[in-house]
User: Fold these one by one.
Assistant:
Number 1:
Amino acid sequence: MNPPSSPSSATASVAGSNALRALRYGYRVPMLLWHLLVHLPLVLLAITPLTAALPLANGERLDHRLIRAWSAGLMRVFGFRLRRRGTPVAGAALFVANHVSWIDIVALHSQRMMGFVAKKEISRWPLVGWLASRGETIYHQRGSQESLGGVLHEMLARLRGGRSVGVFPEGRTRDGREVGPFHARIFLAAVEAGVAVQPVALRYGEHASAQTVVAFRARESFVGNFLRLLGEPVRSAEVAFLEPIAPGAAIGRRRIAEVARERIVAAMQTNRP
């Protein structure tokens, strides 16, 4: 049996941890400022109305490629090393993922351009709100049935127009310990548009070991979470595109919601300690 740690060793450990965090802030804050003040304006200058829709060799639009690259860069600034498993479906699709923190949107945008459905409060968040609006976010006023009807209408229009939409069917972030139930109504637009639904599992840290670290803590604000994550150690961020549910699946939106959640939960538990 190992002897208990002495108060002095515990204090030294905390001091060492704080020193490493300060060191990470020392080089990441300048990286963040460079990414915001240099890289972001260059991206915005490159995606003018005349050039945004230009197709690249692989068929991807120029603005979508640049947004993906900038998002991947932001993930790296925060110390995340991206891994992608699986392949996002081509064309219009509804992507559904587990929800841990604001960084989820950046992680998904680094792999595939999609307009997200998000709570209206995000539009007022510093920086992220502005970026979300530029990323074609559809805002929803929580608790408002009228707002939800408008969201579903906009989702349907985009899907029928050949564009993709991303949603977090849990409806809110959690503490990272579990994947909550999926709200079935949000799947209605995919059913009516006849497009595929692709579940996506977001796993932070080796074997999803850092879900609770990335998640919002009790009463933690967006700014608090943002600053805390900026000082965290380097860790992996896996974006796993799982088996899609085929368009026109004759199982109804409730069953589609259940199947999507089952696949994400199974992926989250793979090799998890």
Number 2:
Amino acid sequence: MKTPDLSSHHTVNLSPPALLALGFLGLIFIGSLLLMLPIAHQQEISWLDAIFTATSAVTITGLSVVNVGEAYTMFGQIIIMFLLQCGGLGFMTFAILAVMSLVPGMGLKQQVMAQESIGQTSLKKVSFTIKAVFLYSLFFEAIGTMILTLAWLQDYPLGDALFYAAFYSVSAFNNGGFSLFPNSLMSFSGQYLVTFTISMLYIIGGIGFLVLMDVKKHKRWSRLSTNSKLILSTILGLNLGAFILLWILEASNPQTLGILSLGDQALNAWFHATVPRSSGFNSLPLDQMTDASTLVTMILMFIGGGSLSTAGGIKVGTFIIVLISVISFLRREDEIRLFNHSISETTTFKALAVVCITAGLIIMGFMSLLILEPDHEFLDLLFETVSAACTVGLSRGVTEELQPASLIILMLLMYAGRLGPLTLAYFIATPKKSRLKHPLTEIQIG
């Protein structure tokens, strides 16, 4: 009788998109179970409340159907922090870190999977990049915790100030947008240190880890990669442009900036110009902002932050590639150029695909909410849809009023919005070429 080989084992071969999708689903499932434990909540919550909160945390969105500070105990809030951290750094990063800690070296297949998941072009840089992502996150979150603890010591005991500071640092750096206060950060709209520190955390988190590594390594603008120059200059331009525009649009609005001093106006205009990058906090009542400011906010939410960052949206690199592609076509240029470098057609098609997929998600989700919620305002539902699909977390105050079917739509949007562009990148990484060459044809455009 043949003795079975106990050392042999069966492996399940999953594609990177499937592994990533199942990983996030697993985190949502585990998080929901933990949030439903009696020690995790101090008021009655439903399974839908727990699943929605876990989905919003894992997808680093920030939408919530309950007051997190009142509904959940400290244990529940720590669970939310953990889900935010896992969602922000990415399931793949944590998975690969776990593998690296268990085995001396990574196999070629695991390295390729890691390479695709973080967008790195060199297999040798995968391990270094993932370690840097983890260390950078801990570093900036620790700095944020120290500053916010000092700022809140005058209002809260040391233990409470430290916990609030840690929670908001994790939530801000990961662009999660979860708040322990019922009105987000509106109570701190005049506290410069708190508001500015949180804004810098989500801005840095939204730049992208590869850009941060590039800046640390080269330290000079001329030596930075084309990608880093693009991300930094675009984010700076968007932030400054939105800051000026929102200040002008809201300066005379008595419900928002109109009642504040000049300094407080500048601070809160800056905060709301940068917050749509994906963070989900607000220091002003969003439902009282003008329609023009709301439109600007939705455009900024759609664009999002940098690639391989904790931000959502289509990403600023995608936005700029599509923009300069249109400009190059109008100018009849034979190539798309950026910082004296040409952009490949594959990159252009990829950017266009990401825009179309995200826009498609928004249209389908918005149409569903319009059908399910006929009593709510058109603009409120559109804002909610864009916020969910782009994993931002800003709301005009309608999330808690939506019926269960609408909340399920929002959960699907958050999940798809977090996975969509990443999954697309996986498929594009392994192009399929046909041996057949088909004849050209002309299609009328415009």
Number 3:
Amino acid sequence: MPRPGSFVGDLVDVLEGPRFRKLYATRLCAQAADGATTVALTSFVFFSPERQATAGDVATAFAVTLLPYSLVGPFAGVLLDRWRRRQILVVASLLKALLVLVLAALVALDYAGAGFYAVGLLVLSVNRFYLSALSAALPHVVPGRELVMANSVSTTSGTVSSLLGAALAFAIRAVLGDGTAATAGVLVASALTSTGAAALAARMERDLLGPDLDGPAPHLQEALHGVARGMAEGGRHIRERTAARRALTAIAAHRLVYGLWTVATLLLYRNTLHDPGDTDAAIAGLATVVGASGAGYFLAALATPEVTAHARKSTWVTTLLAVAGLTQLTLLALPMREGTVIGSALLLGLAAQGVKICVDSMVQEAVSDEFRGRVFSVYDTVFNVCFVSAAAFAAAAVPTSGRSALLTAGLGAGYLLAAGWYGAVTTRRPDPVEGRIAGVSPAAAAARGAT
């Protein structure tokens, strides 16, 4: 039985399953590569001394790199429900490594044109597909009673691994300097790490991660022809699962507000809190904000399994959204300094990760395995569309300085409205009993976790 009490205790519990350990190692390696890639691309696009970033620039970058994947997300979901997910993890890691090496070559040439954004789009699209596969695979390696714990450990450790990858990127830049050669070096290191993730995924049994199919997997052409029909069925599946539908709506609202905050914070550090010409100081300051968010993620991992052992996950989501809203409103009474931004990043990180852990678990519990890949692709699509929509709105609403009392008040109100709605609907008409994975019997789930 799970041992309550701490993140370390939770980690020990889930690591007792050798199959989970293999999936966990793959995630850590892959997300370390993601962290290094993010630092390299952010430095190259937003923190070049010769160009000042505006909200419109940020919105354009997010739209170009995230929105197109939202259009192909349904195809990804169908493939996740037909292709061996272990094979997806291997091939996607190798493809990411190859594409990141192409980006490294473009950065070395100091090229930031349409081709650069196109390759960046492919990298992020493959990565979102990869993360969807990880989420869909998790119920195959842990018993249902440990799903919240496993999500907490996996997502939080993955975030920490991303931060370590980012720290590695900063270390490489410190050694090689702040030019394009240093950024290209970071990308090469990221590509090598992705290759390591592919090797780790290859250690797993071919059929370990599902999907659970009644017959042989269809050919690719047949699967793609069935996209429209399959997504319509997936949409009906979500609509029939009240807990999943509500949870996805709540996290969509969170992503809208969080996207606005992200754009404003990036501009605040790029153009206001530091000399616009001192990009190294701006990057270092923004890294501190990312670190504070990471600390919030870790606190969420400590708190969420314990809280949800005594209260409904929907109650914890409502509480976290309310905390995020009150955090923003409190900023109105405080001076806009780095300390206040870092403090708010800590609390928003706590809220963001706690909400995600709960929503991941509620969706995994509510949907059947044969639909799980499609549902998690829809989940990722909601993430991207909401974030890009927030960035597009930020182009008009956020000043280049990143500082706006009206915006801060709006962010606080948005979070509180989301908390009020979700709390009302889940209190008035509570979700079904939580903790049971749809489509997986308790005995089968227990066997998967024990073997």
